[in-house]
From TrEMBL:
Listed EC numbers: 2.1.1.199
Top-rank taxon: Bacteria
Catalysis performed (reactions): cytidine(1402) in 16S rRNA + S-adenosyl-L-methionine = N(4)-methylcytidine(1402) in 16S rRNA + S-adenosyl-L-homocysteine + H(+)
Protein's recorded name: Ribosomal RNA small subunit methyltransferase H
Alphabetical list of InterPro entries matching this protein: RsmH, SAM-dep_MeTrfase_MraW_recog, SAM-dependent_MTases_sf
GO cellular component, one term: cytoplasm
UniProt similarity note: Belongs to the methyltransferase superfamily. RsmH family.
Keyword Transit peptide annotated: no
Species name: Anaerosacchariphilus hominis
BP GO annotations: rRNA base methylation
Gene name, Swiss-Prot/TrEMBL: rsmH
Cited SUPFAM superfamilies: Putative methyltransferase TM0872, insert domain (SSF81799), S-adenosyl-L-methionine-dependent methyltransferases (SSF53335)
Amino acid sequence: MEFSHVSVLLQETIEQLHIRPDGIYVDGTLGGGGHSYEICKRLSEKGRLIGIDQDADAIAAAGERLKEFGERVTIVRSNYCNMRRELAALGIDHVDGIVLDLGVSSYQLDAADRGFTYRVDAPLDMRMDQRQTKTARDIVNGYTEHELYRVIRDYGEEKFAANIAKHIAAAREKKPIETTGELTEIIRGAIPAKIRAVGGHPAKRTFQAIRIELNRELEVLKNSLDDMIDLLNPGGRICVITFHSLEDRIVKTIFKTNENPCTCPSNFPVCVCGKKPKGRSPIRKPIAPGEEELVYNKRSKSAKLRVFERS
Ligand SMILES: C[S@@+](CC[C@H](N)C(=O)[O-])C[C@H]1O[C@@H](n2cnc3c(N)ncnc32)[C@H](O)[C@@H]1O
């Protein structure tokens, strides 16, 4: 299957990165290489782009797309939480810009065998990194009903989490749940018909929740952002595109804390904790896609771009 993915907030991200032709840039979620391609176009022979992705298909597709830039590009198959270590292995300790375009690519969503979506009947997989052994099948069949409830409630923000978990637990008593199609039917049966008729797809939130849990998406993001800010040279920027409020809240909080890290009580006349701001966000509000982008790329609907500049 051809790797197809329309990059979200592409021009806005490139503008915000303030690319220096001889700078070093990292794309921590390389995907099809859409953002990386635009960065590379702006680099001189001295500039460098390090592209990281944990998905073998993305690595292959981006490698092909970026090959015209030759030595300027280095592609690494890894989790972006290992960014510091991967850069150190390349002899790099600081960079001029970082991009994270979170979540899954359209290619991953549409692939017949990856099991990310309720739209395609496939084995329950959902691994972004195919080297990982745990799959969505292990979560659906192996978590207790209460654990499933917690995942679906917290990561899907699903009102019917308890009922969905109950239906899954009952169904797997008869036989293990193997496919996205089976899971979708079970979820459908757990959501009242009246709600099903008006809301979005009944399985959307549960699939999102299982994917986030399996790939530890929020944990990885939370544990990586501070380190990425530390990797930036003065004036360097990190641009993060999120697709739901759970991710966005993490980015917003971490950027704010780095802008104002002081933990002294508000009635202290001077700061005694000694924590200094590491930089600031150059934009007052997150950037959302414009009307034109929303027309040609529906997937961009919930996207938000946040930016932090290192001082
Ligand atoms: C939305 S796509 C990126 C698309 C890319 N910006 C483009 O324009 O072509 C997200 C990509 O990030 C990868 N990804 C998500 N979380 C990751 C992580 N923690 N470490 C490495 N790659 C990750 C996914 O495998 C996927 O290929």
